[in-house]
């Protein structure tokens, strides 16, 4: 069986979706009787009218010698094929929930509103021709049903290299991994730490979305006199280093705005037996992050400082919640073997 995985590609940007696509192809190729390759279609969303061209590019592709297509993200999942399965990571949210929340660049003029309508129509046509639709979380599933009226099944992404996240010592720092971006709000962690003179150290590690935000964090650390307590490790790191930081942390932190899924940072922390600090508007994380498995606060420096102090001042509390986090994730039994079976069914 020849299986083509299709995903979009914003040049020089790499995150969880790209990692998932690579590992999915690797796991498919490890399945007897299966050959798999990844096709990444370049994608940009500005100017708004460019989105029409991007959809037409995807719809205009033809895939000979392919038995099944697995589509992941907009607009790559629009590639036509007679045997297509979607593992929906997220739609183009500016045409859906972000528009509803008044946060979409498509709502400023008639051109943008026309593009939004075209996206919804093209999505509905694509979904109607799919053999099966899976979503990466209940958040994505509910959004698909709310805006498109399309039913789906939840298929959680497994950890790509779970064998690395085995846990370790409980150190004196909080680890914040993942992409460094304004939408991930690492600045709030730094501002919260400044309110805790006796608080833990903070390690932030990951590739910056842009240099402007990286500079903002550098200036913040300098201005708040936190050079001896905050370690900024910008860039791509070997997975062994990411695992070591997570395994030896006292706790982990992840503050995305309205994440579609529980997020790889959360999954890695839970697998390593670490409690996770997040915020009330983090979206999909709240499915598994709670006061039983970490701490949840309002997305303000003062509230985060209080939650951070509560979680890290008592090591036994952090350890107990980390153990509960590990048990919760293990009980979900999310494995690559089961995932591949469902995608090939």
Automatic annotation (TrEMBL):
Pfam families the UniProt entry points to: Glycos_transf_1 (PF00534)
InterPro entries hit by this protein: Glyco_trans_1
Gene Ontology terms, MF aspect: glycosyltransferase activity
Keywords in alphabetical order: Transferase
Residues annotated as domain Glycosyl transferase family: 174-326
Coiled coil, from the record: none
This protein's name: Glycosyl transferase family 1
Organism, scientific name: Caulobacter segnis
